[in-house]
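How it folds:
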Amino acid sequence: MHTDLIGKDLRYGLIGSGSWSTALVKVLSDTGNKVNWYIRNSDNIDFIKEYGRNRFYLRSAALKREMLEMSDDINEVVFNSDAVIFCIPSAYFLAQIKDLDRDLLQDKLVISATKGFISDDHLTVAEYFNTQFEIPFDRIVVLSGPTHAEEVAMEKLSYLTFASKFIEVSRKVSQSFASHYVKVVCSTDIYGVEYSAAMKNVYAVAVGLCHSLGYGDNFISVLVTGAYNEMVRFLNSTHPDSTRIPSRSAYLGDLLVTCYSQFSRNRTFGGMIGKGYSVVSAHTEMNMVAEGYYATRCMYEVANRLEVELPIVTAMYQILYEEKSPHYVVNQLASILQ
């Protein structure tokens, strides 16, 4: 990362207008940062200008209108920013950045707040921008942690982890988010933080499904333990890192909150599947994206390619994509958990 960005106040751009995007805009503006915000729906821009709230998502969050420069032109937002946060559901990522002029990103800091995989190669956002846009890793940061947007909007104490291959980059970005209700953690484990952020969504779907099938807290505690062990085994097999402490908030903490929280859309989605909803009907009724559904297929195929056994991921793939009986699959899974 060039010293000109390290030593200056960063102008932030944010791509996306969902719940997590709105929460991040609130955090940044509350800490005194002006935000260039890409919102595709021009009517929503007008609504926010008038009422200081997102019309469609996280309406409870009061936004500082004077700190926002909103536009329905993605290139205008990127051009006017030093650091660009991408906060788009993975299933829609490529469609929403299709008009992005890649040349505009070459001198920018790219921050991923998307917890999932994109493209047919099942790349994380950091991997995608590095390989497809040729953004060097010294300009890429992953933002993650056990932070549901609803609690951030209520200013309940939350912890965000900023991961980059270069710790000074993580520290630079994290300073913009630190507040009385957001504590920041810095890391160099960009792969571990980003992969665990995607994997925990799969496990939350499994927890919701098992709860709806009638399994109690005793079994679910074993399931979550198995999920944690499975996640750590995958990370250590594919991206070993001597600095990684998987019991920290970006790994175990994010897994726990996504599996147990009332705000977890992935747990909610799994619960609906367990009640007999189809994937389409569950997504339609939720009116939100459950990243765990898409991450299940990606992780299943990545694990097969890398020859790493992930029994819980495999079980969820069989239920969601092969339409096998949830009762049968979970019963088989229960026989190997410890």
Q: What stands out?
A: The longest strand covers residues 158-163. DSSP finds 16 helices and eight strands in the chain.
